[in-house]
Design goal:
The structure is a single chain. The chain has about 120 residues and is mainly alpha-helical. The chain has five helices and no strands. The chain has one domain. The longest helix is centred in the first third of the chain and has 16 residues.
Length: about 120
């Protein structure tokens, strides 16, 4: 499969919307209705890391790079939050290893040079 040089505008929109909902406390409704997950996110940054990993790992795209299951990816990420905040919650179906995989971060230095006149500090 050939990958695009840039992510699609639709992916950008899906990520932006997911991030907005995370930030304003409305991600995963109705599953997280009434659950104030912000205290848990502040106390454990690894929760945020796992939530975004699940969203990214579950998200699928068509041949043009357009997300085809953004709401399902959001739901799976919300299940992670729910399980964290409510240990009695059963994730159905259970998470598979590939969904929660934390992949390595990008290289410390970009392969593509920065624009002229901008110095990396």
């Amino acid at each position: 499969m050939k990958h695009p040089a840039k992510l699609s505008p639709e992916f950008s929109g899906a990520l932006r919307t997911f991030s907005f909902w995370m930030a304003n406390g409305s991600v995963g409704l109705p599953l997280l209705e009434g659950i104030d997950y912000w205290a848990d996110l502040k106390d454990s940054p690894s929760l945020m890391e796992e939530v975004y990993a699940i969203f990214a790992n579950v998200l699928e795209f068509d041949e043009n790079g357009v997300p085809t299951n953004a709401r399902y990816a959001e739901f799976r990420a919300a299940q992670c939050i729910r399980r964290w905040c409510d240990p009695s919650y059963d994730v159905v179906p259970p998470f598979e290893a590939w969904e929660t995989e934390l992949y390595a971060p990008p290289a410390k230095l970009d392969a593509k040079p920065w624009p002229a006149g901008i110095e990396r500090k």
